[in-house]
């Protein structure tokens, strides 16, 4: 595993564009810190400081930071599709196989890289969340601080799943730009399926269907936190209540899609004449 990961990292770090995108991917989550220090002047009457509103208290901080950080995953998605696009355009994929790398090892090297960068990103977000929380939170009990850290695991699984989808699309079309276009088409297709099912059956059934589709199932791992924040400010508003927790079946769905995308990527490479 380390040999395959090292091989892939060398390729990425030798590419100027990949290095820049990887750097940006790791720097952007730190903007959460800027968010915590944001002050909004409301027409000169008073200053609204997010850090003082309690939104960075434990345990809600884990939910908030992982949700915002996951919105920056598109930058590393470009790196993932570029890994495959460059292999085909530079003919390095054929050279790797000639040099003794099996097709299975080729796909695994990409997957290990995805897991590695997802893990590093998760650790960074975990440390950022912990630091912001310790600074702003009024709760210092360990039982509260580490409650809901499953959002970090959800963040990790979400990244691995999304990047595995990007890997599969890149293997399917061989070109970075086309792979990103297909990613957008996949997103649109899921909502077209939602509308079709809703038209044929009901809205409730349509939601059940779309929640098991790739992109939406990854979104469902970490639901938006805004409604939850509103619930803390207006606890008497029953209509604000919603299910924001991370569930085991949601993990299972995304992990299932991840395994399928990696398997299909391997099958495509195995059957393809290089």
Automatic annotation (TrEMBL):
Coiled coil start-end: none
Segments crossing the lipid bilayer: 20-40, 60-84, 111-136, 151-170, 177-199, 251-269
Gene Ontology cellular component annotations, sorted alphabetically: plasma membrane
Top-level taxon of the source organism: Bacteria
MF terms in GO: ABC-type transporter activity
Keywords carried by this UniProt record: Membrane, Transmembrane, Transmembrane helix
Protein's recorded name: ABC transporter permease subunit
Natural source organism: Hwangdonia lutea
Lineage, highest ranks first: Bacteria, Pseudomonadati, Bacteroidota, Flavobacteriia, Flavobacteriales
């Amino acid at each position: 595993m380390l040999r395959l990961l090292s091989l892939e990292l060398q390729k990425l770090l030798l590419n100027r564009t990949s290095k820049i995108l990887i750097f940006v991917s790791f720097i952007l989550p730190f903007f959460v810190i800027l968010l915590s220090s944001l002050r909004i002047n409301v027409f000169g009457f008073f200053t609204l400081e997010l850090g003082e509103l309690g939104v960075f208290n434990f345990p809600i901080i884990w939910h908030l930071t992982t949700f915002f950080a996951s919105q920056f995953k598109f930058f590393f998605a470009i790196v993932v599709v570029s890994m495959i696009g460059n292999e085909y355009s530079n003919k390095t994929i054929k050279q790797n196989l000639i040099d003794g790398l099996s097709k299975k090892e080729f796909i695994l090297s990409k997957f290990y890289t995805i897991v590695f960068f997802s893990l590093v990103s998760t650790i960074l977000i975990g440390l950022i969340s912990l630091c912001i929380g310790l600074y702003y939170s009024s709760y210092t009990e360990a039982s509260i601080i580490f409650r809901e850290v499953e959002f970090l695991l959800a963040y990790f699984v979400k990244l691995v799943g999304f990047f595995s989808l990007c890997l599969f699309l890149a293997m399917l079309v061989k070109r970075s730009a086309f792979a990103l276009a297909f990613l957008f088409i996949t997103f649109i297709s899921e909502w077209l399926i939602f509308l079709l099912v809703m038209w044929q059956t009901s809205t409730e059934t349509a939601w059940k269907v779309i929640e098991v589709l790739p992109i939406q199932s990854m979104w469902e791992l970490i639901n938006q936190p805004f409604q939850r924040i509103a619930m803390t400010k207006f606890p008497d508003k029953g209509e604000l209540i919603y299910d924001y927790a991370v569930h085991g079946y949601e993990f299972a769905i995304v992990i299932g899609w991840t395994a399928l995308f990696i398997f299909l990527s391997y099958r495509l490479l195995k059957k393809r004449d290089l």
